[in-house]
Amino acid sequence: MLYRLANSLRFVGSTVSLAALAVGSQAYAQSAEPADPARDAESPPLTDDLHDRRINYQGQIVVSAQGIRDLDLLAGTDVVEGEELQRNLAGQIGDVLDSQPGVSASGFAPGASRPILRGFSGERVKVLIDGIGAIDASNTSDDHAVSIDPLTAERIEVLRGPAVLLFGSQAIGGAVNVIDKRIPLRLPSESVHFDFLAGGDTAADQREIGGSVDMRLGNSGFVFHADGSWRETDDLEVPGYTVAPALRADLLADAAEETEEGNLEEAEELREAADQRGFVPNTGTETWTANAGLAFFRNDSSLGFSFGVYDTQYGVPGRPGAGHHHGEEEGEEHDEDHGAEEEEGEEAVSIGLRQYRADLRGDIYLGEGLFERLRLRAGYSDYTHTEFEGDEIGTVFDVQGIEARAELIQNDSGPWRGSIGMQYYFRDFEAIGAEAFVAPNRTDQFAMFALQEYGTGPLQVEGSLRYENTHTEANTLGITRDFDTFSGAVGLSYEATPAIRTGINLSRVARAPAAEELFSSGPHIATQAFEIGDPNLKQEKAWGAELFAHGSLAGATFSLAAYRTWFDDFIYLSQTGAEEDDLPVFVFLQQDATYSGIEGEVAFDLLETDNFTLGTELLGEYVHAKLDDDTFVPRIPPLHLAAALKASTGDFDVRGEVEWYDEQNDIAPFETATDGYTFVNASIAWRPLRGTNSVTLLLKADNIFDVSGRRHTSFTKDFVPLAGRNFSASLRASF
């Protein structure tokens, strides 16, 4: 372990040395982000042309709402910030983004919910902190939390489309980039700047508070940052019965069977589980974070670093009646030890997670030659995740990892613009305990990438390439796998009018199987599944095509995208119907698959006067995914449509919205269908300080009619429904 840590630190050290040398020889003080005029009056706002160039050609996933409509390869992109981020704030990134077009959430539990983009999850969605991976174990299993607290985020970017493969072949479905200020982003105009957010709700009795401070250290060019957050929730309140109707019927049938056999205590337990209503047991959470960072700005360059801690404890809801009807598909009988086994299995499962993380960012101006600047980004993570069975330690997951990238940004040369770079990723994963279902393993990955664009008029051509070498080994199994993968994308966009852009993107992406897909073999108590990987999996490849259009027309802004992806050797986790150790068996398999989908949103004003605006927003998304054997891919989100009506005055925003989710009957073998549901929500935001958005009080009511809904994308949908009627309040301040 010390040897691996030393290697990681040496890599970071060499990166820091390179950055320090470049800063010493150059002079620059520009943030890696577009300037925020509200906070930095000394920095003039970027022109639209320069702003768009920074988005398209610096190669980082760093965008902003002002220029989002001009992205080409990143055709399906959304930014959540400000009041919208406050309105949708939740403890996990997946829940924050669930209302965005093309986005759903894994929703395993209130403490663990990862984003799903265009029906893709896990290894096909990259979750980033300012362009670098979270470096945790959230990709290992849906019950593992993402180690990012949205409470201290400045904005969250949802990036879909072929260009995001520049940030890893794992981004076939897209990427989610969380921008926080742990490394200061800019020289603030004031000596000290504070941000604050506090809130609470009724559905989980949530209490949360977070804040940050940015401080200029005189005229030295140094800026210090510190932030922290705390959140606590109780068990989630839900409408009606906790378990789905089909599962409730099974539980009652099992109870009747146990009664006939004279097992009265077990029969009563099963009836209690079937009749559970009003809340989901064992879903409370408690999370705290702390981060500190320092950045140095000099003329046209900057260098900064940060260190932080993320700590969370949360309950993992258990499947009611698990083990009581094992083997029923095979016609097996209960064994003599069934009662004792079930008694052990009823221990409440919880997870305690802590991550220590260090980050580095450099932005070095290189002059007027071929390359304008060098951008460096690196992150190191020491992550420990413990699964408890009652008070007993079950399994401990330990991850040490590093991710680093260096990128050279070209100076504009007529119609040519672009960037080239390289990226390194290392992860040392170890699971310790009786139910360590993944063998200890190490992954080393090296990549080179490039993005180029040509065009000055209404027609533009863009292309991207990525090469990856991935080395994965599990020494205890004596297995080593090496993969060389090549990915590329090309896009053609046309500016039909100054306000409308249309285009087509084509991509060919390949990714190496993840260690969990290769080396899993054993019971996983938190997910209550027996998971089996395949060490002989081949690399997964996909052809993709996407048509898009975005812009404004007749007073309305719109964004539309239709896409199709053809997979060769698609890797997926499938339930077999068998049981092992009283747990359902899930196996990683491969076959061809096809994903198709469409998503879009449109917004326009119905009425506008000097001090009043009435507008509407509409969005929709649909995904269809089938395997080559004509069965459906598991856990694909259903058709989703939403409409909102918003009234704005100088001090108030009032919003009402309706979200409709269709039933999902396109299911994989052994998967359960879900019913459709409709949520009605409303909110009011008040800015008490006239002429400024620095203070916002927001009151919100979600699921006003207390409707029962279940996410089809969730492994736990049959016993973890969505929250019932929920009233919340939050206060955001920046000064």
Contiguous helical run count: 8
Number of strands: 33
Sketch the major β-sheet.
22 strands, antiparallel, barrel
Overall body shape: globular
Distance between the termini: 44 Å
How would you state the average pLDDT, rounded?
85
Strand pairing plus helix content: what structural class? Answer: mainly beta
Strand percentage: over 45%
| Low-confidence regions | 1-73, 325-345
**Percentage of residues assigned to helices:** 10-25%
Backbone CA Rg? 25 Å
Give a quick set of tags describing it.
single chain; 735 residues; five-stranded mixed β-sheet; globular; disordered N terminus
Give a written overview of the molecule.
The chain is mainly beta and 735 residues long. 12% of the residues lie in helices and 50% in strands. It has a 22-stranded antiparallel barrel. Strand 13 and strand 14 form a beta hairpin. The N terminus is likely disordered.
How would you summarize the topology of this molecule?
Blueprint: H1 2-25, H2 48-57, E1 76-81, H3 82-87, H4 93-96, E2 103-105, E3 115-117, E4 125-129, E5 132-133, E6 155-160, E7 174-179, E8 192-201, E9 207-216, E10 222-233, E11 236-241, H5 245-260, H6 264-275, E12 277-280, E13 285-298, E14 301-316, H7 338-345, E15 349-365, E16 371-389, E17 392-410, E18 416-433, E19 441-454, E20 459-474, E21 479-497, E22 500-511, H8 515-519, E23 521-524, E24 529-532, E25 540-553, E26 556-580, E27 583-608, E28 613-627, E29 640-648, E30 652-661, E31 677-686, E32 695-702, E33 726-734
Parallel strand pairs: 4-7, 24-27
Antiparallel strand pairs: 1-6, 2-3, 4-5, 6-7, 8-9, 8-33, 9-10, 10-13, 11-12, 13-14, 14-15, 15-16, 16-17, 17-18, 18-19, 19-20, 20-21, 21-22, 22-25, 23-24, 25-26, 26-27, 27-28, 28-29, 29-30, 30-31, 31-32, 32-33
